[in-house]
Design a protein that fits this description.
By secondary structure, the chain is of the alpha+beta class. It contains 9 helices and 9 strands. It starts with a helix and ends with a strand.
Length: 287
């Protein structure tokens, strides 16, 4: 219940300041959370990124004002945080399919993006298998791609990235470099302001391994909450991510520590009903 109230308070904070500059750090503070953890939880709970939600809510309110008043497009652009009428018009057209001036015409269809709300629901009827692991820092070797969470680009681009490394032989080479162990999907270097992060397909580097043309990065020491997924990809692991943030975090004394996140994929048929994978999340005790 405490977690639910924190998310509700954060949503109230956002709604009360849609006509003002919004800072992700300040929004997260309202929810007593780190910016990383708050954005991650918001996305998994609602299916939309915080920044995208704010943008769509502002453009939805702007459309209502255009229909109900004679407000100037320039004034609306400045009111909702756009640098120029041109940037506002471009964003408006992308969401509504028409220009701001055309939105004044009677009968023009516009899109409403209503406020989201959080409600308590009964969950937990299915067990979650997890363990707490302390692990020293280690090095990963692999390939990475820089992606953005804007408009769900990461959801589209990461599967394409996996397709490339699986078809061009990269995955097989990495497995050899890693000594035949599991392959990793790693989220690194989160840029909250730019809504970007680096996604790696990698393996844990073995001593004296020949990394060839691949990149390397150090994963810092951490306490990890490790969750097991059983079932075909990608549905099984996507469902697990949702349960972690909807059920596990709210009911424990842990919070996200803000470091990299790992997905561990075992070798085998990823479409099998008994395929096993894991999610590793760095954690710390709640303050």
């Amino acid at each position: 219940m405490e977690w639910l109230m924190r998310m509700k308070n954060a949503m109230d904070y956002i709604e009360s300041r849609l006509e003002e500059p919004l800072n992700m750090d300040e929004i997260a503070k309202v929810a007593y959370s780190s910016p990383f953890h708050f954005q991650r939880m918001f996305l998994l709970l609602t299916g939309v990124a915080v920044a995208e939600y704010i943008r769509k809510r502002r453009l939805s309110l702007a459309a209502q004002e255009l229909c109900l008043s004679n407000v100037k497009v320039l004034d609306l652009a400045l009111k909702y945080g756009y640098d120029s009428p041109e940037s506002f018009s471009k964003a408006f057209r992308k969401l509504h399919g028409v220009s701001p001036s055309a939105a004044r015409d009677k009968g023009v269809p516009l899109k409403a993006f209503p406020r989201l709300s959080f409600h308590l629901s009964l969950k937990g009827d299915k067990e979650m298998e997890y363990r707490i692991v302390q692990k020293d820092s280690f090095t990963i070797v692999g390939k990475s791609v820089r992606v953005t969470t804007k408009d769900g680009e990461n959801i589209r681009e990461i599967p394409k990235f996996w397709d490339r490394v699986n078809t061009d032989g990269t995955a097989d080479q990495l497995i050899q470099i890693g000594g035949g162990k599991d392959i990793l999907g790693v989220c690194l270097d989160m840029d909250h302001a730019g809504e970007q992060f680096s996604y790696w397909v990698a393996v844990e580097a073995q001593p004296d391994a020949d990394t060839q043309e691949y990149e390397t990065a150090v994963i810092p020491a951490a306490d990890w909450a490790v969750f097991t997924s059983v079932g075909p990809m990608p549905d099984a692991i996507q469902g697990l991510w949702q349960r972690i943030f909807q059920e596990w975090f709210p009911e424990t004394d842990y919070e996200h520590a803000g470091g990299p996140e790992l997905e561990l994929y075992s070798l085998g048929d990823t479409h099998a009903d008994d395929y096993r994978s894991e999610v590793w999340i760095p954690i710390k005790k709640k303050a």
